[in-house]
Amino acid sequence: MNELQFSRHRRLRQSQGIRSMVKETTLSPSDLMYPLFVVEGEGKKNPIASMPGVYQISLDYLKEEMEEVVSLGIPSVILFGVPNHKDEVGSEAYNDEGIVQKATRLIKEQFPELVVVVDTCLCQYTSHGHCGVIKDGCVDNDPSLELLTKTAVSQAKAGADIIAPSNMMDGFVAAIRQGLDEAGYSHIPIMSYGVKYASAFYGPFRDAAHSTPQFGDRKTYQMDPANRLEAMKEALTDMEEGADFLIVKPALSYLDIIREVRNEIFVPIVAYNVSGEYAMVKAAAQNGWIDEKKMVLEMFTSMKRAGANIIMTYHAKDAARWMKEEQY
Questions:
Q1: Is the pTM of this model over 0.70?
Q2: Given 86, 102, 196, 317, which residue is catalytic?
Q3: CA-wise closest residue to 39 among 206, 208, 201
Q4: Total structural domains within the chain
Q5: Is residue 136 part of a domain?
Q6: Sorted alphabetically, which Pfam families does this protein's record hold (predicted)?
Q7: CA angle at residue 241 from 256 to 307, to 5 degrees?
Q8: 263 pLDDT exceeds 90?
Q9: Which residue among 45, 63, 102, 249 is the active-site one?
């Protein structure tokens, strides 16, 4: 009787050593970017109820926080400002003495090797919570570009290594690139939120940044979650306008989009593992329903496998520790 012939794929799974040899996707703390919410005042470390383990911190806590980030091998942070003063045009966003500008200077003075990325938007700074100038009840695109460009230049002046505009106005990359170049910052890269969906996963962030719109929603400038081809149109447009990185946001429910963008775009791709994704995992872990470490590392592996080069995540510090434990 002839021996049954079939493939034996399990041969390459026989031991940890063999499995490590053939692993296709790897994780490292150097893949991570850690988001920080900075607030004005002193002695503030305000817990964010919907994001366990995440805080709004004042500038006097920055050194302690950055020492931990650096010690874990995380190479970059992204700053989100929570100002005391808000107005119709978000003037604190482009104030050279604004909270993000101050935080940037402090970090670069004390930790020059750390890459400081700054979120460039107006929503945290406007009294209405939208990402631009309001005219007749709507966000007015072109006047908003002027203020966003002023913000980017102010952030670069403060020492930011990378500008990350998240507003999704038409032409925002072109306007900011021109403004940076004219101000003498042609060397500063733009990390564009090129593919940003009008997602239900942003709720906890809006608690943290105090950026919930006071009327309406952001569906006229953020993308419909149902659309795939639109993502490619947005990504390609940002590339033509001068983007150096592209962010896909959110990440977990949009792995197909990360892969689509990766297949067509030849700049580093950033997967933004957003606040709602973080909060779901934390809530399930606190109830004992999941193994948080295994789930987070599996999620991150899926993001890298889909094509992401960088993962922006609130899990960054814990994940960096776990990667070292697991020898990823």
A1: yes
A2: 196
A3: 208
A4: 1
A5: yes
A6: ALAD (PF00490)
A7: 25
A8: yes
A9: 249
